[in-house]
Amino acid sequence: MEYDEITSETADGITTITIDRPEVKNAFTERTLAELNDAIRTASDDDGVYALILTGAEDAFCAGADVRSMPDWKDGSKEDYAGFLWTAQNVVRQLRNAPMPTIAAVDGPAIGAGCDFALGCDLRVVSPDVLMRQGFVNVGLVPGDGGAWLLPKLIGESKAREYLLTGRDITADDVEELGLAVEIAEDTIEAAESLAEELLSNPAPAVRMTKDLIDPSLSFEDYCERAIEYQWACVNDDEHAEAISAFAERREPEFDRDYS
Fold this sequence. Notes:
The protein is α/β, with parallel strands linked by helices and 260 residues long. It folds into two domains: 6-200, Alpha-Beta Complex (2-enoyl-CoA Hydratase, Chain A, domain 1); 204-248. The chain has helices at residues 30-44, 78-97, 113-120, 147-155, 157-166, 172-178, 188-200, 204-213, 220-235, 238-248; strands spanning 6-11, 14-19, 51-56, 102-106, 109-111, 123-126, 131-133, 170-171, 183-184. Helix 1 runs parallel beside helix 2, helix 4 packs antiparallel against helix 5 (157-166) and helix 8 (204-213) runs antiparallel to helix 9. The longest helix is centred in the middle third of the chain and has 20 residues, at 78-97. The protein starts with 5 loop residues before the first strand and ends in a 12-residue tail after the last helix.
């Protein structure tokens, strides 16, 4: 797919996807969603990608849907609207299900579905002027892209209810207090790249399988069964062996990888 409303660049095992509509604070259109889904899927299918960064252009992450570009859904069918909403949900779905860790580098506003895109990532770094807002209730909508499912799991049900039911802003101070971000940084891309490089310094199979084990829907017994399979795969993995050797020899590991 040719990209008009996002950019996607891969170097040294890290894919950086940027929503590139700065004139509207990176608010998305149907085309943007299609491009995001394609770019995330492409990165996920690439064995040479070990981390993914999602960000927005020019001091904004994503201000939600660009309402000026949207049809009047009341004149359409429920099936058409469901298809549109599914494409937004699928951005979150793909970020959560991607085999590699995903990092949101959040500058400025992350509103509505834009907030959900950030929450759907495994990790977040934010700027001091970050403004995350669910805000759906303020315009007579529900959190259709995953927010009411994601936020309680990340910050607890009571506090999530406050933000979801009032539409209040989540500021940088709130993000720090709630533990929603790894770091508050002036340069979020630099911080995200540093975090991605830290992830790449660990054995990749262990990182990927650990991500898959972080699944609150699993019972403890199901978790243990899955952990046996994954741990056995790790025990027999070359990167595990190199990490052990490097630890014993007090040096940095050198993994034999083909980076995209």
